[in-house]
Amino acid sequence: MISRQLGAEFIGTLILLATVVGSGIMAETLADGNIALALLCNALPTGGILYVLIMGLGPLSGAHFNPAVTLIFVLRGEIGVRPAILYVVVQIAGAVLGVWLAHVMFDQSVIQISQKMRAGPAQFAAEMVATFGLVFTILTVLRANAAAIPAAVGLYIMAAYWFTASTSFANPAVTIGRTLTDTFAGIYPANAPAFIVAQIIGAVLAYLVCRWLLKPSGEPRA
Questions:
Q1: For the chain, what is the domain count?
Q2: Euclidean distance between the first and final Cα of the chain, in Å?
């Protein structure tokens, strides 16, 4: 069973990154210098593919595609440490191969290193907010109506592309993958560690807030 779960996480993350990077390349090519249009054309496919992937692969692996999300389900006791580590490994591998697949599809050099700077306190804060919001969305909607998770996550990411200064990476595996593309979606490798730290902080804060907020009223607050 674990092999199928890992396969789902690998394939899902691969397709997610191929979509993020591929739609970014297509958007930048067709937008003729209009950055707002390019961002819109990057956000819509990303939200759409998240809906599809979570609907299809959620029953197999939970459709994390994100080490920060996997960490939260470890904290909730819903996945063990060993399988969580394996999830993270295949998520990162899928992210890297998804970026390379996008390069192949658009006839670009497969091996690239991003030169796109995304640094500073505003970017750090944006990634905290983006990942807090993602985990908050997952945990609150999971409690309210689990069947709506695919739509909720897809819509949240589309919105967060626009209301966060970082354009909402909100995912350590995505961040690592995007260091390997010198295209619209890229991030300079030296900027990635701060993004990842901010993502983990945001995810854990959302977990703590939801543990308090969603506790049944008859139970003592943690």
A1: 1
A2: 34
- pLDDT number for residue 218: 54
The parts of the chain modelled with pLDDT lower than 70 are 217-222
Residue 222 confidence (pLDDT): 42
Sequence-separated (6 or more) residues with CB below 8 Å from residue 111: 100, 180
Q: What angle do CA 204, 160, 21 make, to 5 degrees?
A: 100
Do 208 and 139 contact (CB within 8 A), yes or no?
Answer: no
Residue 133 resides in a domain: yes
**What does 101-148 look like in DSSP terms, one character per residue?**
HHHHHTT--SS--------SHHHHHHHHHHHHHHHHHHHHHHHHHGGG
Burial 16-33 (b: 16+ CB within 10 A, else e): bbbbbbbbbbbbbeebee
Segments forming the whole domain that contains residue 25: 2-213
Does some domain include residue 218? Answer: no
**Two tokens at 157?**
């990411």
CATH number for the domain including 16?
1.20.1080.10
